[in-house]
Amino acid sequence: MKKNKSIILVCTSDQPKQAGEKGCLSKESREVLALFQQKKELEAEDESLIRVKESICMNNCANAICVRIFPGNSLYEHIQLSDVEELWESHIQKNQEVKHLLAPKINRFMGF
Ligand code: FES
Question: pTM here?
């Protein structure tokens, strides 16, 4: 049974901090956000332990869509709708990072 609190932040910014980039909103990050919210409503054992929130720009716009998940302060990049299931099953349900979706270390601590 899951006991830890989790926070899922999905960048929905249309004001990218990185010049020349379009930002996560232009890549349909609201659909990713909505799918995480749906997973929470339908699959969470205790909805109060999971928060799904919109986020401002994570300063990693070139690698949109960006999603940050706590615990772990893990920054995921190039997220697509098809990745949400794996993130949910692994990071949220088992508290295990999805290594192949993680941003490189150099991107993880930038500006957010
Ligand atoms: S707009 Fe999403 S990381 Fe910048």
Answer: 0.92
Question: What domain range includes position 69?
Answer: 6-108
Give the amino acid at 14. Answer: D
Q: Enumerate long-range contacts of 85-90, CB under 8 Å, 24 or more apart.
A: 85/39, 88/36, 88/39, 88/43
Mean pLDDT of the chain: 92
CA of 2 to the centre of ligand 1 (A): 30
Q: Quick check: is 1 in a domain? A: no
Ligand 1 atom with the smallest distance to the CA of 13 is 1
CATH code for the domain in which residue 10 is found: 3.40.30.10
Nearest atom, ligand 1, residue 22 CA = 1
Q: Would the CB of 58 count as within 6 Å of ligand 1?
A: yes
- The atom number, within ligand 1, closest to the CA of 60 reads 3
Question: pLDDT higher for 81 or 109?
Answer: 81
pLDDT tens readout for residues 10-58: 999 999 898 888 999 999 999 999 999 999 999 999 999 999 999 999 9
Domains identified in the chain, total number: 1
Spatial neighbors of 34 by CB under 8 A, at least 6 apart, are none
